[in-house]
């Protein structure tokens, strides 16, 4: 059954767990997440970006989600719009049946230029008004995702910019967060604490200086009733990086957000953890390996199935680590 993000976050807070929110673009991703949730008895958040609707086609994405709900009637499903860039994108998601939307006003509508507080609070409040009138939840974002090592946003997923970000926007300020929640009435808030989108987050295992889980604690102490969202939270599994490179790929050495750091964040109010890159890497690694080991195969179901199974294992591991397994 479909539920709203707010219902799920409130329940997660009562029970001290966090929810991975996986991005979906195709059938195999949807099936991997649903099969994993079913296996470990977890609710799910399926999130689609505007890019996902463009990739699959809006009706295709909408019907894939409907199919997921029909195939797994016991799994509670939140259908969430990831990184809405303006009011129109969020409104179209609502018309499409999403039960939750993210209005990302931390960046201007080009999704590259850091926006002013006034712009962000104004446009987010506007979306909250419309969405809440229809019983739909809203996630906002305060602060810009970017590396505390380099000051750069993640590069390869359309959120990139060459501009260096200043320290103030790279780290969400607890006081400003309290003001933002008051000004907008968002249900949950994405914060900047040193994570960034894509595979290239950290050049070595992240220390407390570049991944600031203590900042989450400070924000949570100031706004304990607001559910905190961590973006850019892929762990960039070493073994999948190796598999990709062992079977003809060429990815650079890189480090993601350790699962233990996320688990620590969950203790301090993180309820939604956005993950896209990990499933992309598992899928690519599994397909590269399958094709390289089965050179005569030309049935795509075989390698798509390998991709689905690889993604499913990651989903299961995150459901268990974040504590939502058993809460479906
Ligand atoms: O934060 C972005 C997600 O990784 C989705 O990326 O806009 O390429 O679908 P996308
Ligand atoms: P990753 O690139 O770390 O998977 O982050 C995804 C994300 O934040 C989607 O909104
Ligand atoms: Zn994100």
Question: Can you walk me through this structure?
Answer:
This protein has 328 residues and is α/β, with parallel strands linked by helices. The protein has helices spanning 5-14, 27-40, 50-56, 58-71, 87-95, 117-133, 167-170, 174-184, 213-222, 238-246, 259-267, 277-293, 300-322, and strands at residues 19-23, 44-49, 77-84, 100-103, 137-142, 188-191, 227-230, 270-275. The protein has a single domain, classed as Alpha-Beta Barrel (TIM Barrel), CATH 3.20.20.70. 47% of the residues lie in helices and 13% in strands. The protein has an 8-stranded parallel beta barrel, surrounded by 10 helices. α6 links the parallel β4 (100-103) and β5 (137-142). α9 packs parallel to α11 and α12 (277-293) packs antiparallel against α13 (300-322). Bound molecules: glyceraldehyde-3-phosphate (G3H), 1,3-dihydroxyacetonephosphate and zinc ion. Glyceraldehyde-3-phosphate binds at residues 23, 49, 51-52, 82-83, 157-159, 197, 276. 1,3-dihydroxyacetonephosphate is lined by residues 23, 82-83, 197-198, 231-234, 274-277. Its cofactor is Zn(2+). InterPro entries: Aldolase_TIM (IPR013785), Class_II_FBP_aldolase (IPR050246), FBA_II (IPR000771), Fruct_bisP_Calv (IPR006412).
